[in-house]
Hints:
Mean pLDDT of chain B: 94
Strand content of chain B: over 45%
Mean pLDDT of chain A: 95
Order of helices and strands of chain B: EEEEEEEEEEE
Distance between the termini of chain A: 41 Å
Largest interface: A-B, 26 and 27 residues
Largest sheet of chain B: 7 strands, mixed
Oligomer: heterodimer
Low-confidence stretches of chain A: none
Low-confidence stretches of chain B: none
Structural class of chain A: mainly beta
Amino acid sequence: ILxxxxxxxxxxxxxxxSTNFTCSFxxxxxxxxxxxxxxxxxxxxxxxxxxLNGDEKKKGRISATLNTKEGYSYLxxxxxxxxxxxxxxxxxxxxxxxxxxxxxxxxxxLP
Amino acid sequence: DTGVSQNPRHKITKRGQNVTFRCDPISEHNRxxxxxxTLGQGPEFLTYFQNEAQLxxxxxxxxxxxxERPKGSFSTLEIQRTEQGDSAMYLCASSLGLTGxxxxxxxxxxxxxxxL
Lengths: 111, 116
């Protein structure tokens, strides 16, 4: 059974702070990892698809790295803004059949 | 709007009643997925379709749950004889359905079910 963990469970930061969270997953038989942002009352929004060890992806102030050998991915947010407040989910891609999600990190950015 | 849509957005029902949810995927997407999310957890996979064929079902999908995608377009998820433990957010997602390629799944806003 695949198990995906995320830490911390929740996080409160001040506007302008930079922050990061972790997604941990089994390193064997890795296929792909996905990051999503889920704002309350909206659809989860795809941020990144990560496949290769050492991958770094960036989208505005948000970036992510991947280490498949040790089984973790980091998501970084630079200069957090209140609109970044959301739950950030990572999901292990089970060879295209389904996703195995972590429990998420709930970020609150205080103005 | 060309995203994934789900109806209804909220449903309150009494224990023992049947409920049905609908998902309309992105039009050119061949794959459609159903997930369930409960408080404090990430979404959990329930089932998926490739066109009209249901290819995989999770052990979470008890015999009270049934999903259909009759024409390979929209899908319905029915829960019979609802129980309080069925209270959750039910999410639908779709993707192109290309094999051998890591694909993004595009999610709808979900249907929040409350069973009293």
